[in-house]
Predict the structure of ABC transporter related.
Amino acid sequence: MIELTDLTKRYGDKTAVDHLTVTVRSGTVTGFLGPNGSGKSTTLRMILGLNAPTSGTVTIDGRRFIDRPRGLRHVGALLDAQDIHGGRSAVAHLKSLAVSNRIPLRRVGEVLDEVGLAEAGRKRIGGYSLGMKQRLGIAGALLGDPPVLLFDEPLNGLDPEGVRWVREMFQRLAKEGRTVFVSSHLMSEMEHTAERLVVIGRGALIADETLADFSRRGSKAAVLVRAPEAAALAAILTAEGAEVEDAATAAGGLTVLGLTAARIGELAWRNDIMLAELATQNASLEKAFMELTADAVEYAAGEAR
Ligand SMILES: Nc1ncnc2c1ncn2[C@@H]1O[C@H](COP(=O)(O)OP(=O)(O)OP(=O)(O)O)[C@@H](O)[C@H]1O
């Protein structure tokens, strides 16, 4: 379990992390989401004792990371897959990590197998693709077989097969009872990866809940209706109290809020209006994320320069 209590980090006038209080539980994959520059990396670095908090505390299973003599055996982390010595091979890199953390050397072969780098293990890291570096970073995090794992944007640079593989691995690690905390600035990456979400904006907590609860915060469920006589139908639905928006992109499409699909179908039938399509739209996680973090986006497109 990772516990952040009133955790704050300031750089001069800039508050990178703002009184963050969060508990990251074991046995589940927790997504750590926020727009670019919202303080995710700074938080992960404070968890690992690489940055000192301005105030507040962070503990892992009750102790500060730097007070743990077992290091990589307790917490495995991938912070920046590119930040690695390109002249060495993956085997040499992992062996040096193993030796300095008193991890048996047989783990090197095991983790390289696990991440699919067994063949490339003796090649220079400098020649690796970003996806291979991500895999190597994940191997390093797994080396000490730790109960707590932190990953900063681990899906960056992975192809769709790689993304699926990482997702399945995170879920397996969580099922084994470990704490898996994964940052991303993209909801689409977390949607099929995490079970819980911690969402921050400008360093402050916006949400800490299950994915299902988070999606309910988003826009109300809407119903998409397509009908040749869209204008007539829109008038009927509005008279029934619905909020109707024209979906400008789809000819004849209406987005209806405030009525169920069943009720819309019934009203159309009673008024002899033919429907071409009637579909309930699930509240989109992406939309909920965009709405909740809109005020916290630091560099939006189209902003005054
Ligand atoms: N060493 C530093 N000195 C000054 N400001 C910093 C430093 N490190 C981070 N910041 C600032 O703190 C804020 C949070 O940065 P951080 O890298 O933690 O965000 P992030 O959520 O990880 O972003 P991204 O998704 O872009 O990686 C940013 O505004 C950043 O410019």
Q: What stands out?
A: Residues 11, 14, 16, 34, 36-42, 185 surround adenosine-5'-triphosphate (CB under 6 Å). The chain has a mean pLDDT of 88. The chain has ten helices and 13 strands.
